[in-house]
Design a protein that fits this description.
two-stranded antiparallel sheet, globular, mainly alpha
C-alpha cells in the first residue's frame, strides 16, 4: 500500500469517525430527553420532527447562529482554545475503539476502527487527561471568580476519578495480556467452560471482573460530570460551572464533548468488559457477516447509555465532600486491593501454589 493510499484511508476513517460521533451525540441528546421525560411522566421533545427527533438539530442551529458574546476581561487566546481542547480529545478517543470485526474487501483487510494501537489503553487515558486542561483553561481564562471556582472543583473531581479509572484497567490488561483493544476483544472469544459443559454458552467476557467493571463505570460517570457527580454544573452553588461565561457555539462544543464522552465511556466499557463486537453467530453469509458485529457493539453500548440516563433520572446530586471522599477513600483503595488479589490469583493459576 502506497503512502497516498494510506493517507486517503486515514482521511476517510477520520471523517467517518467525526460524522459518527456527532450523529450519535444528536441521537443521545434526544434519547436522554425522551427517556427522562418518560420516567417523570412527561412527553419530552415532540414538535420538531417525528417524535421530536429534530429538536436537538434545532437547538444546535440556534447555538450556531447565536451572537458570540466575549467578556471584556478574558484571556482571549486560552478562552478560545478551551472549547476545542474539550471536543477534540472526545473525538480522538473513539478513533481507537473497534466497532466491528475486521473484514476483507478484495485483497485488503479493513479494520472497523480509526487505528489499532498496541497501547490503546494508555492512549485513552492520555486523551482523557487533556480534557482536564480544557476545564481549567475555560475557568481561568474567563476572568470571573465563579467559573474559576467551578474549574478548580471540576479538575479535582476529574483527576481523582481518573486515578480510579486507570487502576480499574490494570486487571483487564493482566487478564487479557494486551493493552490493544483488538487483543482485549479477541481475549473474550469463546467460553470459560468446555464444549461438553452445560454452561458452554456463557461467553468469556471480562464481566467476570465485576469489581473492575463497577469501578470503571462509576469513574466514567464521574469523569463525564454526570449525575450524581455533576457538581461541575451545580447551578445553585456556582452559577453554571466552568463554562458560565461561554455562549453560542462555544458552549455547544462543551455540550458536544460531554455527550460524546458518554458514548465513549459506554463504548469503552463494552469493549473492555462486555466482549466488544462479539455476539451470537447465526451462520450468516460472509458478504453480510460484518454487519452483525456492529449491531451487537451498538446494542451493548446503548444499553450502557441507558444506564447513564437512568442514573441521572434516579439519584440526587452528591455533596462535594462526599464525592471526593468516595473517590479517594473508597474507589482507589478498593482498586489497589483488587489489583493485588488479581495478581495473586493469576499467579496461582499460571504457576501453581508454592507448596504444591
Amino acid at each position: 500500500m502506497t503512502g497516498w493510499e494510506l493517507l486517503i484511508e486515514g482521511v476517510i476513517k477520520a471523517v467517518a469517525v467525526f460524522a459518527l460521533v456527532l450523529t450519535t451525540v444528536i441521537i443521545l441528546v434526544w434519547f436522554e430527553r425522551k427517556v427522562v421525560a418518560d420516567m417523570q411522566n412527561r412527553l419530552g421533545p415532540m414538535r420538531a420532527g417525528p417524535y421530536g427527533i429534530l429538536q436537538t438539530v434545532a437547538d444546535g442551529v440556534k447555538l450556531l447562529v447565536k451572537e458570540p458574546v466575549v467578556p471584556r476581561k478574558v484571556e482571549y487566546g486560552l478562552y478560545m482554545v478551551a472549547p476545542i481542547a474539550a471536543l477534540i480529545p472526545a473525538i480522538l478517543i473513539f478513533m481507537v475503539i473497534p466497532i466491528g470485526r475486521p473484514f476483507t474487501l478484495g485483497d485488503r483487510v479493513i479494520n472497523l476502527a480509526g487505528t489499532d494501537l498496541n497501547v490503546a489503553l494508555l492512549y485513552v487515558l492520555a486523551m482523557s487527561s487533556i480534557a482536564v486542561y480544557a476545564v481549567v483553561l475555560a475557568g481561568w481564562s474567563s476572568g470571573s471568580k465563579y467559573p474559576l471556582l467551578g474549574s478548580v472543583r471540576a479538575s479535582a473531581q476529574m483527576i481523582s476519578y481518573e486515578a480510579a479509572m486507570g487502576l480499574a484497567l490494570v486487571p483487564v490488561v493482566m487478564f487479557a495480556g494486551s493493552a490493544s483493544f483488538t487483543g482485549i476483544v479477541e481475549s473474550q472469544m469463546g467460553s470459560y467452560f468446555s464444549e461438553d459443559s452445560i454452561l458452554r454458552f456463557i461467553p468469556a467476557w471480562h464481566l467476570i471482573l465485576i469489581p473492575s467493571f463497577v469501578i470503571f463505570f462509576v469513574s466514567g460517570v464521574a469523569e463525564t460530570n454526570r449525575a450524581p457527580f455533576d457538581l461541575v454544573e451545580a447551578e445553585n452553588e456556582i452559577v453554571g460551572g466552568y463554562h458560565t461565561e461561554y455562549g453560542g457555539f462555544r458552549f455547544a462544543m462543551f455540550f458536544l464533548a460531554e455527550y460524546a464522552n458518554i458514548f465513549n465511556i459506554s463504548a469503552l466499557t463494552t469493549t473492555l468488559f462486555l466482549g466488544g463486537w462479539l455476539g451470537p453467530d447465526f451462520g450468516t453469509p460472509d458478504w453480510i457477516s460484518w454487519v452483525f458485529p456492529i449491531f451487537w457493539f451498538m446494542f451493548k453500548t446503548f444499553l450502557l447509555v441507558f444506564m447513564f440516563v437512568w442514573i441521572r433520572a434516579s439519584l440526587p446530586r452528591m455533596r462535594y465532600d462526599q464525592l471526593m471522599s468516595f473517590g479517594w477513600k473508597r474507589l482507589i483503595p478498593f482498586s489497589l486491593l483488587w489489583i493485588v488479589l488479581m495478581a495473586v490469583s493469576l499467579g496461582v493459576r499460571d504457576l501453581g501454589l508454592p507448596w504444591s
